[in-house]
Amino acid sequence: MKGASISDILSRVTHRGKGCLLVLLLAACAARVLAHNPMTSWAVARLHADRVELEVELSSESAWTLMGGSLDVAPDVGARLPKLKELAPSLYEVSAGGSQLAPTSVEVELREEDGVGFVLVYPRSSGAPLRFDAAFLRSLPAGHKTALTLKDADDKVMRTEVLTAAASSLEAKADDSSSPAAGGRVASFWSFLKLGVGHILTGYDHLLFLLGLLVACRRFSTAAKIITCFTLAHSLTLALAALDVVSLPSRLVEPLIAASIVFVAVENIVRKGEPGWRWALTFTLGLVHGFGFAGALKEAGLGAGGAGLLVPLFSFNLGVELGQAGVAAVVLPLLWKLRDLPAFESYGRNVISAAIALAGAWWFVTRLLF
Prior knowledge:
Elements: H1 6-14, H2 20-32, E1 41-47, E2 51-58, H3 60-66, H4 81-87, E3 93-96, E4 99-100, E5 105-110, E6 116-123, E7 130-133, E8 146-151, E9 157-163, E10 169-172, H5 181-202, H6 204-214, H7 220-242, H8 250-270, H9 278-299, H10 310-338, H11 342-369
Parallel strand pairs: 1-8
Antiparallel strand pairs: 1-2, 2-6, 3-4, 3-7, 5-6, 7-10, 8-9
């Protein structure tokens, strides 16, 4: 293996100032990505003929923020249960036939891992359609998502949808509890498909890892092997983690993802030629990224409260793959076109790889410290 000295690398990266803008751009992008999102939540609405039982769970950070607390200090929700009970009716706006319902009972309790659980009971007329609006999302940082699962009186899952501040409501027709299967599965499928596409398109760390893998590829066959191995690897660990077969804490997974980005980028600089062997490395590092994808699902509440897993897991992963394929379809032709330029052929690979390494190093440090 032919190595390259640090001075050689720096001279290539800074030759005539080329790539400085790209380096700064990717560094700024890195600064925007959070290592760990402590704001998690989920909800389950059980529909009975005469009542609706709404169970909501918030992380302590989410509950603390809703009460106006600052995350600069450790949340102490245990001492604020009376205030949380007052807050409970405003978490969701529940209406029947257009008329807002008031809860007849409210319970609040501390749960494992510092979570806070709420159970609210609303009266229901069986002939009126229901609407659930997750109003609390508008008081949390932008981008927070939550999963709301509808169940019938026999605790059978009817549907699960991902709600955001921009799309915070879910409607249940009067006859949903009697024939929930087909429509519920379709709604859940599209909801988690969009979540998967959105996650990969805004998952800058995953995108930069993929770019770092592809920037060294000159042949389509090499790129196809790399993409396939990345897909297989992260699909495997995504499924295992989502099903709680294997679990790794996000505080470990997030720095490892950042380290994988740095590793691939630096290797692009010190190694030359077509990386035909990289499929094996991609599979290994892709296993780590799968745990990151699973973290996004769990943050949205997948599987919590007995929610169905198979349809959301499949559609989320499909969304990730579709988003990934779309990115590769744009990036690969662009990279191959740029190689026709002498300047890019001489310096482009190293400039892009150095910028990716810088972004990955920034993530690694911040994810270890914060």
